[in-house]
Amino acid sequence: MVDKFDAAVSAEERLFCLLLALLPSDRGMSKADIFKNVRGYRDEFGEDGATDSLNKKFERDKEELKSMGIPLKTSEPDNPADAVYFIPSDEYTFSFSAAELSLLTAASAVWSESAHSVEASEARLRLLAADGVDSAAANLAPRIDTHDAAYPKIATAITKNQVVRFPYLKPGQAKYEVRTVTPLSVVNYDGRWHLLAFDHDREAERTFLLRRIVGKVAPVSQATPAQKPDTRAAGLFIEHLNELWDSLEATIRVTPGTKASVALANRRSTTIDGETYTIHYLDEAVLADELCEYGAEAIVLSPLSLRDAVIARLERLVDDHA
After folding, report:
1. Would residue 242 count as lying in a domain?
2. In total, how many domains does the chain have?
């Protein structure tokens, strides 16, 4: 029976369902099994069978998973129809802290409620079976925005190895810049989507925050891609972001027992000495926005540029509501 909710499955959710289906399968799954059982394929398969459209969708999804650094493999039997698809467990494994497992469990609960997804429920059960999960987190249902408008076009550009152009608004600037890039990898880090791309105007690789793309992402049909995305790009990109995260520190005086104390204590790599928190970050402007939410609960001691950025935002807020 076709799930009545399958018709509303987004490309992102379909990819995640495919990943969840393949991860626990030691023997892999045939294309027929995927079409019959995985949310996002089974609706179309149940209506029309294995159409050309469905096969093309699956091929695009395979390439997109690979572009994210996921080692999706295909067996090579004598009869191609007997091929199975699998993700080798020794090449793609996860190791989560207790805090990370709690957050993932809560996130899966949110998705399960919103999408009525069997796959999300199964993922939640696997997470709850892991050591170190706070059972209370399973009942949390925070409101999480999982979409950046630019993401689908950027992901397609990586899959198709396209050059794209988009308006990009840098922190502190009133006017956007038009950037022409070859997208190489997109990863979610610190709760935000980051793009690694070759910038054609600057003739060098640059990192972009997808939330700062303020308009349409358009393919540039006449342009030649600078380089082809590598399946290792996502891993190397994350290594780069880890290095940047470790190199940037801020010292904050935090009021005990407040929302700020809980949120900042649970940031990765935070160290606490009484009311003094040393935290790490990737983007000063993004952190300044976050700290403004805490008001007097979190007072920036250093760096001065971050302190000034927070003060400027608070002063602007006061002026806007005067």
Report:
1. no
2. 4
